[in-house]
Amino acid sequence: MIIDAHHHLWQPERGYRWLDEPGLDRLRRPYLPADLTAETTAAGVGATVLVEGGRCHPDEVAEFLGYAATTPVIAAVVAWIDIGAPDVAATLAAYRRLPGGELLAGVRAQVQGEADPDYLDRPEVRHGLAAVAAAGLSFDLVVRCEQLPAAARAAYAVPELKVVLDHLGKPRIDQGDTGLRAWLGPITELAGCPNVTAKLSGLVTEAGPGWTAAALSRFVAAAVDLFGPERLMFGSDWPVCLLRAGYREVLDALREALPPMSEPRRAEIFGGTAARVYRLVS
């Protein structure tokens, strides 16, 4: 079974202000469970992980857990959390009491929006990460490339936490060799943390207009070398990916960009890793 480990849903009128940024016209419409189901059915995807959309409205967590409880293809939710707040443990407990709370698999904070590249070193953030680990949940990590060193320090400091790196740490694929060199050092350090897995997601967006599978392949191959297939997972990043490519195009692009490997190893990337990390199947 193919598992899409990273996608979003939204209704713009609910407060997704980032959709007002220039160049996002394609995304300024509701994307709902019925739209997702149509895409996954056409692409042969059997399960998905719904990820928070950027701390956009206070009812998003309840809404997403409700979607997961009533939409067969949505197998788990990664909800928003203020990871530096003093009440992370209580917030997680409250999430689990919501209808569909048993489908909460992890949480994510918008670390990429923090100006401080060392944000993850702050004591209150480390305390929050420890609370996530104690709750038995994963922490999706969305960061800019320059924040990867602090991400590695945090992962080493909280070894019991399952850290999931979104979008391979957002390398500048559009910069070619320059982007590869800038990313390779810090991603190598982070990959050395055994509690870290990574998503092959969001790559067409980072590659920019005119992207090709060949442009993705060097970054994908490096990720395979560093993490191994058993620590990598496919994510469509739909509907954000629509700025560059359709759902099926993103899936096919990753298939093309992957280096040669056995079918069992490919199956890890396209389902096995996500199933283990997010506890989707036994």
UniProtKB/TrEMBL annotation:
The source's domain of life comes to: Bacteria
Q: Which residues form the Amidohydrolase-related domain?
A: 3-280
Protein name per Swiss-Prot or TrEMBL:
Amidohydrolase family protein
Show the Pfam families listed in the entry: Amidohydro_2
Transmembrane regions: none
Say which family it is in. Answer: Belongs to the metallo-dependent hydrolases superfamily.
